[in-house]
Structures are given as structure tokens and as C-alpha cells.
Specification:
The protein has helices spanning about 40-50, 65-95, 130-140, 150-155, 170-175, 185-200, 205-220, 225-230, 235-245, 260, 280-290, 310-320, 325-335, 335-340; strands at about 110-115, 120, 160, 180-185, 270-275. The protein is mostly helical. Its EC number is 2.8.2.-.
């Protein structure tokens, strides 16, 4: 059941379930309005096996190599980023060609605007979004050091405006003229990271809104204390909730599919970065937008800093707690993210 790393040729799954989105909305529900058909045909499965393969850059440094070595490093990374965009374009053509091309404020509600450097950043939680927001706040001139900004300031301080707050004309102008980027993460690593953050640590909001209904529906003979507090949701219970076509509470931005948050088939991002290669690709982006040379993306973990960062080994440990069928269905659930962002099949025993 070993995990496979990096970008690779996607392998089609056993199934791609049509999970009915729950009509009940929580405050954090995120819905896709332009999904198109999600059914995978036999012909499409065959095409996937010949999809372009990309590998990560190896130790690309944007500061240390002098002269031509630096140029070569930048050129190599630029080629990887360009190929990544081409894979996305191909997947969109195959699976999302029928979607409406109209962009509404709902499509851009997770895109943050930085006016000084003319940058648009689509937030993907658990993929470095807190540190990217810190960096955008510094770029805007509202802070001088990203390392000094606390988690609450970053997310609730009102420093950054989302694109949906603008008029339709202003939205389109920014989409057409500003640099647009997003960062993605291996989907199962991301969902395990979200579970650990929200359910294994004190969090009244998530334990009340999600924990209580999850325990109530999926736990056999729950205690009165568990029903009252929503504390102690197990990973298996979380997976049951995730796969349920009739969830007792809606989806959340932290485990929603990345393609549904940022709509990359509708919005042409200039750069799609990867969490797994954050140092190199964040530096590349900052140089691309001509940010000050001294500015670097922070790398610290500000929520539950004593927890070990979710790795492939940790992801494997959590998914050993669920059945093979459940692992398959979670992979199927995030299958479009695997295709669009060209991540390899996470476990060897999946279809």
C-alpha cells in the first residue's frame, strides 16, 4: 500500500461516483455550478494512460547558482510549470468542455486581490494558504514582515479583499490583466492534513458544526458527551461523511476538491504551483511579479505547530484505518484533482 510521490501519469479508477451534493448548506459549504459530466468513458480511460508525464524539479535554487547555472535552473522550472499547465488544459478539454464559460462572482470568491503588484491568488487551504496571505499583505504595504503576522490577523484581519467583492466589469478587468496563481497539494495528503487540523485538535467551530452531526450519524451508540461536544471524530467516521451522498452537513473549503475552489478550467492561471515544491516555485512566482528580492514566503506552521507536518507516511497510516473500498472511493472522489494537477495514484492497490 505504498504511497507514490510526485507528478506522474494518472491511472484511471475503478469508479467515479456521482456523489449527490447535500442540499443543506453550512456556512462553509462550497458548491460547483459548472461541473459538466463527471462520468469517465472507456475511451477517456484509454486516453488517460497516455497522458503527458511530468517530474518535479530537483533542488532548483533561485539564489545560489551564479550566471548560466541560475538561468538553467529557472528554465527547467519554467518548462515544468508550462507542461503542468498543458496537462490541465488537456484534462479540461476532455472532461469540462461542456461547462459554461461565464464567470460569476461565485467562481472567484476564494481569489484574493493584491492591487499594488496586480496579483490574484486563489486560496487552497492546507496548501500553504496562510503563508501566501501573509506574503500578499506584505506586498500590499500593510505589514513589513510576513513572519510577524498571526493566524487570526491573516484570516480575519480584513487586510485582503476577495475578487467577488468587485463589480463584474472590475472582476473581468483583473482576471484579464493581473497575474493569477494557485498552489495545490497531493489530494489525500491534503485531506488528512485537514482532518488532523480540524478534528484532532481543540476547535469549537468544527467540532460543533461538523463533529456533532458526523458522530450522530456514523457512530454506533455514541456517548452523550460525544454528541454534546462533537469531540473525537475518528478518521473512519470522517471518511464515511466525506463519501456520503446524503451528508448530514455540507462540504467545507478545507476538504473540498481543489478544482471546485479555483475553477482552473474557467480561469487561466499563469502559475499553478505545488505545495511539495513550495520553496522553489514560490520564489519563482515572487520574482515573476517583481516582488522585492528580500521577500520570501514564510515556511512556518502556525496552527498546531507541535504537530508533525502531514507526510506521505502519515497519510498512509491514516488510510490504513479504512477499508480498501473506502480508499478507492476517496481516490475516486478526488479523481479530477489527480487528473488536472497530475498527481500519481496514491496507493498501489487502487484502480
Amino acid at each position: 500500500m505504498g504511497l507514490q510521490a510526485a507528478e506522474a501519469n494518472p491511472v484511471s479508477p475503478m469508479q467515479h461516483p456521482n456523489v449527490e451534493e447535500n442540499k443543506q448548506k453550512a456556512a462553509t459549504v462550497s458548491q460547483e455550478q459548472d461541473t459538466g459530466s463527471s462520468q469517465i468513458t472507456k475511451r477517456q480511460r484509454k486516453l488517460l494512460k497516455t497522458s503527458h508525464q511530468i517530474t518535479h524539479s530537483k533542488n532548483v535554487s533561485l539564489t545560489s547558482p551564479p550566471g548560466s547555472a541560475l538561468e538553467e535552473s529557472l528554465s527547467n522550472l519554467s518548462s515544468i510549470l508550462k507542461a503542468r499547465k498543458q496537462v490541465l488544459k488537456n484534462m479540461c478539454a476532455k472532461y469540462k468542455s461542456g461547462i459554461s464559460k461565464s464567470i460569476t462572482p461565485d467562481h472567484v470568491k476564494y481569489i484574493y486581490v493584491e492591487e499594488k503588484y496586480k496579483v490574484l491568488y486563489c486560496e487552497v487551504p492546507k496548501s500553504g494558504c496562510s503563508n501566501w496571505k501573509r506574503t500578499l499583505i506584505v506586498l500590499s504595504g500593510k505589514a513589513s514582515n510576513p513572519n510577524n503576522l498571526k493566524h487570526e490577523q491573516v484570516h480575519y484581519g480584513g487586510y485582503l479583499k476577495t475578487l467577488n467583492k468587485f463589480s463584474q466589469k472590475e472582476i473581468m478587468h483583473r482576471l484579464q490583466t493581473y497575474k493569477k496563481f494557485m498552489f495545490v497539494r497531493e489530494p489525500l495528503d491534503r485531506v488528512v492534513s485537514a482532518y488532523r487540523d480540524k478534528f484532532e485538535n481543540p476547535n469549537d467551530y468544527y467540532h460543533n458544526l461538523f463533529g456533532k452531526p458526523i458522530i450522530s450519524k456514523y457512530r454506533v451508540a455514541p456517548s452523550a458527551e460525544a454528541l454534546k461536544t462533537g469531540n473525537g471524530v475518528t478518521f473512519k467516521e470522517f471518511v464515511q461523511y466525506l463519501l456520503d451522498g446524503h451528508r448530514p452537513v455540507g462540504m467545507d473549503i478545507h476538504w473540498e476538491q481543489m478544482n471546485k475552489l479555483c475553477h482552473p478550467c474557467l480561469i487561466d492561471y499563469d502559475l499553478i504551483g505545488k505545495f511539495e515544491n513550495m520553496d522553489e516555485e514560490s520564489n519563482f512566482l515572487l520574482r515573476m511579479i517583481r516582488a522585492p528580492d528580500s521577500l520570501k514566503l514564510p515556511s512556518f506552521k502556525d496552527r498546531n505547530p507541535k504537530d508533525v507536518r502531514t507526510s506521505k507516511e502519515i497519510t498512509e497510516k491514516y488510510f490504513s484505518q479504512v477499508s480498501l473500498m473506502e480508499r478507492q472511493k476517496v481516490y475516486d472522489f478526488y479523481y479530477m484533482d489527480y487528473l488536472m494537477f497530475n498527481y500519481s495514484k496514491p496507493f498501489n492497490d487502487l484502480y
